[in-house]
Amino acid sequence: MAEGTKKNLQSSAIIAKLFGLTDRRVQQLAKEGIIPVEQRNPYKFDLLPTVQTYIKYLSDKVNGRETKTADTVKAESDKLRAEADLKQSKAKIAELQLKELEGQMHRSEDVEAMTNDLVYTVRSMIMALPGRLAMDVIQAGTAAEASAIIRTECNKILNELAGYKYNPEAYQRRVRDREGWREVLADEEADE
């Protein structure tokens, strides 16, 4: 070996004393790639390059030019990705809320409630039939007349149902009520 390439291998304990650190911190610096390690288990460091590298690391750190380790870069990358995902999710939620306000989309619970309202309306119409028809049917002279009276009332109910139309304002009222916007709108109108 040439004189200039001879290595002065020292343990992590010696390097720790030299730098004023703990043995564990020196090993951590080696794992992070901040100081060069020549041998692991037990840790051995070439004294001159280790001292030079550590001095450069401290100088860069003081001057704000600290080189980032792979772990730091990955952590920052993960944080940026998480922030981007969060912003994207918030934008998607805002888009869905806008579609809901514009009546282009409805929540399943609103559709269910509106459908239930329709079912209860149909149910009440059918349940009212016996009371509405009892006197007319009893006065009918024949079964055919009674059948015609019942059919006429059933057709009225079916025609009423056939006229049922989608009402976007009913959905908008439900959204405002659910979100508590009715009170806000009332307050704004009162202020004007």
Task: Summarize the structure in words.
The chain has helices spanning 12-19, 23-31, 47-62, 70-102, 108-139, 143-162, 168-179, 181-191; strands spanning 9-11, 44-46. With 192 residues, it is mostly helical. Strands 1-2 form a two-stranded antiparallel sheet. α1 (12-19) crosses α2 (23-31). The longest helix has 33 residues, at 70-102. The radius of gyration is 40 Å and the shape is rod-shaped. The model has no long low-confidence stretch (mean pLDDT 84).
List keywords for this structure.
192 residues, 8 helices, rod-shaped
Give a nutshell description of this structure.
By secondary structure, this protein is mostly helical. It has helices at 12-19, 23-31, 47-62, 70-102, 108-139, 143-162, 168-179, 181-191, and strands spanning 9-11, 44-46. Helices cover 73% and strands 3% of the residues.
List the helices and strands and how they pair.
Layout: E1 9-11, H1 12-19, H2 23-31, E2 44-46, H3 47-62, H4 70-102, H5 108-139, H6 143-162, H7 168-179, H8 181-191
Antiparallel strand pairs: 1-2
Distance N to C terminus: 92 Å
Radius of gyration of CA atoms, rounded to a whole number: 40 Å
Into which percentage range does the β-strand content fall?
under 5%
The amount of helix comes to over 70%
- The total beta strand count reads 2
Biggest sheet overview = 2 strands, antiparallel
Mean pLDDT: 84
Tally the helices. Answer: 8
What shape does the CA trace take?
rod-shaped
What is the element string, with H for helices and E for strands? EHHEHHHHHH
Pick out the low-confidence regions.
none
Q: Give the neighbour order of strands across the main sheet.
A: 1-2
Structural class: mainly alpha
